[in-house]
Specification:
single chain; 167 residues; alpha+beta; Thiol Ester Dehydrase, Chain A; 4 helices; 22% helix; 34% strand; globular
């Protein structure tokens, strides 16, 4: 099917392996600060989906994004994967910020509740992830995604992550 107005979007990114290489001997918080403050490149997914990390401290991470029409699904709104990616990033980075040098984590479970549709008209969105529990092997976090201009809740979620200690 031909459309009258074709659109294009060009995405560029830096080497995604710079951050893992820089992780050796560093805490999760120190590593994330370097990414959020531009001393290390952000992961390519942030360029692909149009969001970025704006603040990190121990147990908390904040991302902002701009929903664009390139994220639309067939029902005329931004695909839920955009909200899920923001929530997963914020909650995961909140947990990552608690890691000691040599520790790693991986997501075991992710739950998202969609409260309102996201459209281009929603404008900039802000997602905050906060650690709820940090144990030796399991960590949990919760996150909220809100419209920056109105403060209205768009989605919220929880995650459970496995903490892997160095051998």
């Amino acid at each position: 099917m031909e459309t009258e107005m074709k659109r294009t979007r060009t995405v560029t990114w830096e080497d995604p392996f710079e951050v893992p290489k820089a992780a050796a001997g560093r805490s999760g918080l120190d590593l994330l600060k370097d990414v959020f403050e531009g001393r290390l490149p952000p992961p390519p997914i942030t360029a692909t989906l149009g969001f970025r990390g704006v603040h990190v401290e121990e147990g908390k991470a904040v991302f902002e994004g701009e929903p664009g029409e390139h994220l639309y699904n067939p029902i005329g709104s931004v695909h839920g994967g955009f909200a899920m990616a923001l929530l997963d990033s914020a909650m995961g980075c909140a947990i990552h910020s608690t890691l000691q040098a040599g520790e790693r984590y991986t997501t075991l479970e992710l739950k998202t509740n969609f409260v309102r549709p996201i459209t281009v008209e929603t404008g900039r969105v802000r997602c905050e992830g906060v650690v709820v529990h940090r144990g030796a092997t399991i960590a949990t976090a919760e996150g909220k995604l809100v419209a920056d201009s109105t403060g209205k809740l768009l989605a919220h979620g929880t995650t459970t992550c496995l903490i892997v200690s160095p051998p």
